[in-house]
Amino acid sequence: MLPYGRQSIDDDDIAAVVETLRGDWLTIGPQVAAFEKDLEAWTDGVGVAVVSNGTAALHTAYAAAGIRPGDEVVTSPMTFVATASTAIAQGATVVFADTEDDTANLDPAAAQAAVTGRTKVIAAIDYAGHPAEYDELRKVADNAGALLLADAAHAIGSTYRGRAVGSLADLTTFSFFPTKNLTTAEGGAVAALDPVILDRARKFRSIGMVREQDRLRHPDVGGWHQEVHEFGLNYRLPDVLCALGRSQLKRLGGFKSRRTELVARYHELLADVPGLRLPVQRAWVDPAWHLYPVRVLDGRRREVFDRMRAAGIGVQVNYIPVYWHPVFEDLGYRRGMCPNAERFYAEELSLPLFPALTDADQDRVVAALHEILG
Predict the structure, then answer these.
(1) Which of 22, 211, 249, 318 has the fewest CB atoms within 10 Å around its CB?
(2) Where is the active site (predicted)?
(3) Does residue 4 sit within a domain?
């Protein structure tokens, strides 16, 4: 089965992990701080805290933003469920706003309409690696007195108007799952413009533990003493996985270039396939494409999905609108709230896209689509 996405691991990655395994540190050690510093080269220098996975990154970001019961988070339903569920874990109410028809990203006008006096965070998603409209969303967030969060699980390496994803919102979260643009096996990160919020994120990912002498409430107990001032969770990313991430980062530029080449080939080879709508790219963004999401028209998405899978091509659907999940239905959310997102879901199909995908593999995908839809 040709997968829709997969990791790209080379001998340098393996050597980096082996070297760390032979050292003194497996969990929190020198590779953690080094990986965080390396990541700053991709966030225009914005500080980063690495965590155990992308869901942990979102939970950590909401906690660092001070989300509490009674607060509201405005976000898009066209995302993985964790963008919303981790806000609910902090006691927030999630308010879903509709997406743009072409990019499937959060529509700034819809976000504006969803804002209330309780809005604490507006969370955009860089769907498929294409950055959201951050200048417009910044205006919405600032007018609401809310923080702007970028769920950039798909988008490390992308830029918007010449600025790196990671520097565009008050908080940005990344995922390093194997199908993403770089991997640490499991892993994620939080970038924060405000050093105070970044410090809160680092404490939250480490069980809330405080060890610095000048921060202790009872500093004279002894050298072993540590304190918890606010509750946190164990979302630490181990040294051995940070070593893998540091090695992967050296190839992120190459990964992005190959994904861009494959997207351009898909655009060319699929341009004349009937009943297929191809993804767009706005002139002011430079995406690090994570997905190649086509739209299958005329109600044929299920047929195309089944026939592609039967042909050994592992297409995928990204994503079920979040509030369609039964857990959200049980909270009172109903279908029909975000018609653009729901139409997008009804047609969306992610084609295989990863750096090791060969031209021959891609030709096979294209030929199958021509056969089904041509």
Answers:
(1) 22
(2) 180 (proton acceptor)
(3) no
Same domain for 148 and 84?
Answer: yes
Domain extent, residue 328, equals: 252-373
Q: Domain of 285: which CATH number?
A: 3.90.1150.10
- Asked if residues 91 and 63 have their Cβ atoms less than 8 Å apart, the reply is no
Give the separation between CA 99 and CA 111, rounded to whole angstroms.
9
Q: Which two tokens stand for residue 115?
A: 């804002």
CA angle 64–145–332, rounded 5-degree value: 75
Q: At what angle do helices 54-64 and 82-89 cross, to 10 degrees?
A: 40
> In angstroms, rounded to a whole number, what is the distance separating the alpha carbons of residues 260 and 95?
34
Note the pLDDT of residue 354: 98
Identify the active-site residue in 37, 139, 180, 203. 180
Burial (CB < 10 A; 0-12, 13-18, 19+), residue 359, is exposed
Sheet strands side by side (includes 93-96): 48-51, 188-192, 171-175, 147-151, 119-125, 72-75, 93-96
Q: Would you state the pLDDT for residue 233? A: 97
Q: Are residues 29 and 156 in the same domain?
A: yes
pTM score, whole prediction: 0.97
Residue 13 pLDDT greater than 90, yes or no: yes
Residues 139, 141, 142: CA angle, nearest 5 degrees: 65
The tokens describing 121, both together, are 């965070």
Question: Do 209 and 288 fall within a single domain?
Answer: no
Domain-ending residue, one of 228, 249, 270: 249
Q: Is 180 a catalytic residue?
A: yes
Q: Among 227, 249, 271, which residue terminates a domain?
A: 249
